[in-house]
């Protein structure tokens, strides 16, 4: 009830009290003298009862109104000792609005998302060797970096934006396009760069609310090979190796995969991340998925699915006297059937087995470390002697040594050296040509600032070009410098 309503009620009650007192007095003056004594006693008793009732009503009203502001009271009289307030609940409209606790505003799903990304700009130069060659002879080229050729200088290797966040406690979103992709078959076969390509688009579902277990729906990385899972923004070498990446070029496919990371493993990975180590991301200590199997952004061409499983486990070596050192070991398997693209158009009329097994091991640099992977199996490969694609063995991997030097005037420095080897088909290229790769690469990564990294590498390469119409090995030396800025 508003304050002026309480004051009005008090005034009305007071007026009624005065009227009650005056009315018996007037009646007493008009009555005969003989009956004044008993009538007067009755009147006084009745008035005292009414006064007591009115006092109780005034007291009850005063307890429900807010404290009055300073100022003269309209009615003031000596108040006798009052009885206990009447224990009646106030009317709902008399409760002050300020006493109600406002409900917290719920965030909309789009307010929970965040945007981040990174860009890589490279300078590539073939210092010496087979930058060019006659028709039918291999030139020095890389399946990962189109800028390794006789005419290139500056290129954008990657321009990534990532939109991610939790939609609620059970579902999260991850969306990553790349603005540095390239397409061919344009005007007179001219190559066009700076186009947009979908890399990741998936939802993580947490059925139990515990984020140690998740089910990933959509286009995401295929859990095969430690290096393939590692983000390009977090890798020392500029490109992945031919042997491991040949299993899943582009590293992604469309499907469903489940990941589980025990809290003990997650705690070790969190500590390594806080130390600035280059991890492979939270893809689970255990993972199992099924995918189309045709490759990144390619239409499925058969009724078969690719099945992939991965397991990895880090071990703390404090018990061996290597305080803070972590050794991680694991492996992955792939079972698939694929139809490679063929030069006459479309895909091969039959599918080829694409089955592999991978082993990996990493000793994280504190300050020195070693990383190695190897994989074996069977995959499609073009055989010049028969002029067709056949199932052939694949074999290859890499060994990398590295160091992590934190205390320098220009930030953290990561020197590294990597040797890679591969013999087998490359199913992502037309006609699945055979690759024969041996390369030694030395590099330095300078983390000048959390937002800026500079990496320079110098390599000695012997490669067969990824084209079944060219033969022989191309050899040469390659210099590359990359600037990466994170945002």
Automatic annotation (TrEMBL):
<protein>
    <recommendedName>
        <fullName>Porin</fullName>
    </recommendedName>
</protein>
<dbReference type="Pfam" id="PF07396">
    <property type="entry name" value="Porin_O_P"/>
</dbReference>
<dbReference type="InterPro" id="IPR023614">
    <property type="entry name" value="Porin_dom_sf"/>
</dbReference>
<feature type="region of interest" description="Disordered">
    <location>
        <begin position="62"/>
        <end position="99"/>
    </location>
</feature>
<dbReference type="InterPro" id="IPR010870">
    <property type="entry name" value="Porin_O/P"/>
</dbReference>
<feature type="signal peptide">
    <location>
        <begin position="1"/>
        <end position="29"/>
    </location>
</feature>
<feature type="compositionally biased region" description="Pro residues">
    <location>
        <begin position="67"/>
        <end position="93"/>
    </location>
</feature>
<keyword id="KW-0732">Signal</keyword>
